Amino acid sequence: MERLKDKVAIVTGAADGMGEAIVKLFAAEGAQVLGVDLNAEKLKEAHGAATNSIKLMDIDVTADDADEKIVGETLSAFGAADILVNCAGVVEYENTEIMRDDNWERTMDVNLNAVFRLCRRVIPEMRKRGGGRIVNIASINAYVVAPGLAAYAASKHAIAGLTKTMAVELGPDEITANFISPGAILTGMTRPLMDDPETKALFESFSVLPRMGMPEDIANGALFLASEEASFITGQGITIDGGFLAKV
After folding, report:
1. 78, 143, 152, 179: which is the annotated catalytic residue?
2. Calpha distance 61→80 (Å, rounded)
3. What's the pLDDT score for residue 147?
4. What is the pLDDT of residue 135?
5. Domain around 15
6. pLDDT tens across 197-228, in order?
7. Count of domains for the chain
8. Do β-strands 237-240 and 175-182 pair in parallel, antiparallel, or remain unpaired?
9. CATH number, position 181
10. Does the annotation count 93 as an active-site position?
11. 32 within a domain of the structure (yes/no)
């Protein structure tokens, strides 16, 4: 089934985990995809050589004019932009009282400022196509928090507010904007932590289901929001957390 046939997508954070899974699923569903990531080596390991359906771009999303360069590369490769998935993100664990400015600023730059700039730049391209889909990756920490997550939680709360506002602003142009809040997902970042039995048990306890979340679970949610089936859904947050928020 080609649910994204003739669509062009941009996916950041494409070298690993959720972003990698989203790129692969979107391409399998008929989209042409620009996969963006800071890590050129991991990007190539994840996706191999560029194909007719997947192009790769290594760039820091916080770099000067990164939004212009990313959208420009998309237009050069595919001629349009219909879908944007902002998946790139960082987390720094540091309590508010001792948090260093550079940690706060880096978190906001990657998780919020780069998202805003790329959304702002791609909107006119979507309007030219008669509509579009924006999917931002937030977190369950947009709803619940823990010590040491001040910067991360603040950035994800902000993503929720930004996305809802864009939905209201862009509705008349048939551009939808939604966000996904993942729970504990097994990725390249979290997999090494599973070697510790206590940490593994903690992560598994975040789900009421007998498993952790997988990147493909998030990719399936992103595919739905990017598809025609979700054309009347905008300004919403979809939580994919194995039921964690239901029990807290």
Report:
1. 152
2. 20
3. 93
4. 99
5. 8-185+214-247
6. 888 888 888 899 999 999 999 999 999 999 99
7. 1
8. parallel
9. 3.40.50.720
10. no
11. yes
